[in-house]
Design a protein that fits this description.
heterodimer, A: 113 residues, seven-stranded mixed beta sheet, B: mainly beta, six-stranded mixed beta sheet, five-stranded antiparallel beta sheet, 11 strands, 0% helix
Chain lengths: 113, 113
Amino acid sequence: NAGVTQTPKFRILKIGQSMTLQCTQDMNHNYMYWYRQDPGMGLKLIYYSVGAGITDKGEVPNGYNVSRSTTEDFPLRLELAAPSQTSVYFCASRSSGREETQYFGPGTRLLVL
Amino acid sequence: DQQVKQNSPSLSVQEGRISILNCDYTNSMFDYFLWYKKYPAEGPTFLISISSIKDKNEDGRFTVFLNKSAKHLSLHIVPSQPGDSAVYFCAASGPTSGSRLTFGEGTQLTVNP
């Protein structure tokens, strides 16, 4: 049982490049989330999904896209990387029920130069 | 609009003493609160939670107190250990939040041997 896995661990992008951050969970959780964490800041929600085929915007969705074709996978796409997207990105998942805990992946550190 | 605030970016305590981390919220609809702990280069991990129907929840060395009238919660760690050194995030949700959590900025706790 690996929990929530994220790839890559670290990536450097040039301005304007695109990439996909991968997130997979093996706990059969319906809910999945993408957050970004900037230095000295809390976690800001980018996008979330309540089940396969259903996604919705969080607080800071601009510049990102997501898809949820399976229960297990929730990739985050950056189409035109900008320096403002330099951050650490965390994926999380949880089961149904409002008081269920979110389980986080180890994070992807992204540097846009 | 920062709905969950942790006003102390850092806290330093001696091993064996009590650590008290504080969190304030503004949204009166929040009714479920969590604390997460984060080590460097790792994702946040769930520590303890409390529902608004309670004013205290205890789990071993960790106790969370909720003061609804003051919209304030605190995490007490007794006794503090060097392994507790980490960033602590408080988070909140409410019936109108759906499946989303709102996080504070985090407090870096350092426990000195």
